[in-house]
């Protein structure tokens, strides 16, 4: 038996790139997911889309909605996979209470930021976020452009 146990994937599966543009990220959490076998195989192949995905907090539980995991062609012929089904998220009670309190009382939104492998298991990084106004997005774009230009100027001078 070999002592070199290889972890599956070894990193990021998918990122929600629009999330940091559309929202102010306040706090992040790591959540596990209840997945079916075909979904894990599809995630290994990188067949995940986080566009329009969000986390619903209901009855003291968290559910991931709007996530599209496209099934592989080799999925069993006698089973019809549902690509956008609601998936349960696994968080401890303290984290759930904190998320529910922030969403209900303070007006935060709970969104998924990324999916990744951790010790052979699929994890989802979720965030408490507040929506940005149009002028906030413009300010962020302007600041990012200035930082890029400043880096170019410093590199050219040095």
From TrEMBL:
CDD domains: SmpB (cd09294). This is SsrA-binding protein. It is found in: Cytoplasm. Belongs to the SmpB family. It comes from Fluviicoccus keumensis. GO terms for biological process: trans-translation; trans-translation-dependent protein tagging. Transmembrane segments: none annotated. Gene3D superfamilies: 2.40.280.10. GO terms for molecular function: RNA binding. Residues 138-158 are annotated as: Disordered. Keywords: Cytoplasm, RNA-binding. PANTHER family: SSRA-BINDING PROTEIN (PTHR30308:SF2), TMRNA-BINDING COMPONENT OF TRANS-TRANSLATION TAGGING COMPLEX (PTHR30308). Pfam families: SmpB (PF01668). GO terms for cellular component: cytosol. Required for rescue of stalled ribosomes mediated by trans-translation. Binds to transfer-messenger RNA (tmRNA), required for stable association of tmRNA with ribosomes. tmRNA and SmpB together mimic tRNA shape, replacing the anticodon stem-loop with SmpB. tmRNA is encoded by the ssrA gene; the 2 termini fold to resemble tRNA(Ala) and it encodes a 'tag peptide', a short internal open reading frame. During trans-translation Ala-aminoacylated tmRNA acts like a tRNA, entering the A-site of stalled ribosomes, displacing the stalled mRNA.
